[in-house]
Specification:
The structure is a single chain. The chain is of the alpha+beta class.
């Protein structure tokens, strides 16, 4: 059902961006010390049931509210969901309690990112539908300054986070030069997206991101401790 990757991750050190305002991520890391990619979580939960997102019309995801009910999805799909809600007249913001509403500028940025992700999903299906979707994968980077910078830029609207080294068990993975994304934002040429999904380097100094369907585990106990100490459980637990 899932294609085995041709890439070897064993020789590399990887890091993962932990959003400390994301309850599902934090609860999993606190209780199990690991995260499972949305695609794998779906297959574990529903066994052989086909993943609904892969049959959804990408263009409809920005306008059809029902199409956001697609089960487990990744952090990049949140931009699509937020854009969808805003287009349908809903107020959107950050935070479970004391929600800070997004400004018009914030919403314009969310729309722009959502539209970009929709285009990347459409081209992924054309190039190779077995590649991990940006909607349903875990994003990793190599453990160096460039990798950390790339993850911060990828989740630039997240201010409460931890970047931690992880071990990786994977079913499939796509290694892509993230510079193609910046190039597409500037030029809106779909051939740039095709190069991303073909795994081509943008230039002599690539900036790789790794799209992983599998499981990541925290390497250091101090990172799990940091999450315990900095993730606010009060909106989710109430004492009687």
């Amino acid at each position: 059902m899932l294609k085995q990757s041709f890439y070897s991750l064993k020789a590399k050190e990887f890091i993962y961006f932990i959003d400390l305002d994301e309850p599902l991520v934090c609860f999993n890391l606190i209780n199990t010390n690991q995260l499972t990619s949305p695609l794998i979580a779906h297959y574990h939960t529903f066994k052989n049931e086909e993943y609904p997102l892969y049959n959804a019309n990408p263009d409809s995801l920005l306008t059809d509210l029902d199409s956001t009910k697609l089960g487990f999805v990744g952090p990049r799909f949140q931009y699509v969901a937020l854009s969808n809600w805003a287009r349908n007249g809903l107020k959107i913001g950050l935070g479970i309690t004391n929600t800070k509403l997004y400004s018009d500028t914030d919403i314009e940025k969310i729309h722009r990112i959502a539209e970009l992700e929709i285009e990347f999903e459409k081209i992924r299906r054309l190039i190779d539908s077995n590649l991990p979707s940006r909607f349903t994968c875990l994003f990793l980077a190599e453990d160096n300054i460039d990798g950390r910078t790339m993850l911060k830029n990828m989740f630039s609207n997240r201010k409460n986070f931890r970047i931690a080294p992880v071990e990786v068990d994977f079913i499939k993975v796509h290694k892509a030069d993230s510079k193609w994304i910046d190039a597409y934002e500037r030029n809106k040429n779909i051939h740039l997206i095709k190069s991303y999904w073909k795994g081509e380097n943008y230039d002599a100094n690539p900036q790789y991101e790794y799209l992983v369907d599998g499981i990541v585990k925290l390497k250091k106990a101090e990172d799990q401790k940091y999450i315990v100490e900095n993730f606010d459980t009060r909106p989710y637990y109430h004492k009687s």
